[in-house]
Amino acid sequence: xxxxxxxxxxxxxxxxxxxxxxxxxxxxxxxxxxxxxxxxxxxxxxxxxxxxxxxxxxxxxxxxxxxxxxxxxxxxxxxxxxxxxxxxxxxxxxxxxxxxxxxxxxxxxxxxxxxxxxxxxxxxxxxxxxxxxxxxxxxxxxxxxxxxxxxxxxxxxxxxxxxxxxxxxxxxxxxxxxxxxxxxxxxxxxxxxxxxxxxxxxxxxxxxxxxxxxxxxxxxxxxxxxxxxxxxxxxxxxxxxxxxxxxxxxxxxxxxxxxxxxxxxxxxxxxxxxxxxxxxxxxxxxxxxxxxxxxxxxxxxxxxxxxxxxxxxxxxxxxxxxxxxxxxxxxxxxxxxxxxxxxxxxxxxxxxxxxxxxxxxxxxxxxxxxxxxxxxxxxxxxxxxxxxxxxxxxxxxxxxxxxxxxxxxxxxxxxxxxxxxxxxxxxxxxxxxxxxxxxxxxxxxxxxxxxxxxxxxxxxx
Length: 461
Ligand code: ARG
Prior knowledge:
Elements: H1 16-22, H2 25-28, H3 32-48, H4 54-73, H5 85-97, H6 99-103, H7 110-146, E1 151-156, E2 159-165, H8 166-191, E3 193-194, H9 210-216, E4 221-222, H10 226-231, H11 234-260, E5 268-269, H12 288-311, H13 326-349, E6 351-352, H14 354-360, H15 368-379, H16 383-400, H17 409-415, H18 423-426, H19 429-435, H20 444-459
Parallel strand pairs: 3-4
Antiparallel strand pairs: 1-2, 5-6
Helix pairs in contact: 3-4, 3-7, 3-9, 4-5, 7-8, 7-13, 7-20, 8-11, 8-20, 11-12, 11-13, 12-13, 15-16
Bound molecules: arginine.
Residues 24, 28, 84, 110-111, 114, 318, 320, 322-323 line the site of arginine.
């Protein structure tokens, strides 16, 4: 068990049980880089402000670099039983440089130390996730371009509704992922403020320069109020919410890919990499990868709700409950980054069966609305009357065992004499898809326009 360096008033060694509950090193060791970076900036500021001597600073600086090297090479193990990453780094530093190491914690508390470390971690991943989203959107745009003419039965209630194209469908997802990306960037901007120098809760009598450490660590500025800064975890909640929402989008897309790769649909085939076999049924290819993406969404929601719950009753300022902020964030970040990489690859490599999609458009009378619109436009009927006439046409098509798009002008006129032969051309699925050329609509020209606008936005990022 490590020698306690922060226990002037606690004499008995903690029981193993208490240590297991109390210690965060087993997980917050992931913050070692941020912790050392934060300490380097703090030490330099202490020297510049005349709070520690230049000699002590040099010893600390060299020592911290050595600790970093030792952690990365494995020479200094982070499984040594220290309470947390902050105590572990400080202990090792003091072993290496002696008394100078004990001066590092001047004008600082673990409360502002952990706040700055964790914020740097979260901000870094806000940007990393945004970069991965950018790659995913780029791939979606490529596939959308390739399939801007591939007919796809658009659905509501999972029932055939109107003809669309696959590119348009993919652009719907690209739009969701664009909002996700913007959310990560917004969060980055809002939270890019340094809590370092806030000390325990009330600031410090030492003449610290928070502007300097903020700048050195790449923050826009220091935070406004120290009491808030050591207890606030909004930045962590934001990344959890952003990830939960993004995973919800990933999950919806995964669900469609699972459905589309069934023998009932047969619209897409996932590459062999993204499917696995069954241990008993030799013929099977299961979509385990999109299923896992859908399944992992659950833990992303859980992590968000869990931290919201941890925070809800906490009086100001720091409380140890806050230590519960990290594992969920680490887990969500890992899940998000892995999911984005896998999803991009899966979209890139899946093969699309255009014929199957087009064949599916021949079921479900997708162009019925077009005929009703024609009756309104060309025959001057009120929409409700047109709606009823087309209902009769659909009944007749079912009697004939055809799709509405296969009815002849004669068959149509038999149902209602006002349906002129020219209306027939509207019933073609592709004509119908291209007729929906209103802004943001499915027509191939509009789909291409959306792709172009999204590409412009992406390039301007
Ligand atoms: N391991 C702690 C955490 O993650 C560091 C802060 C401890 N501060 C304190 N006053 N006990 O929250």
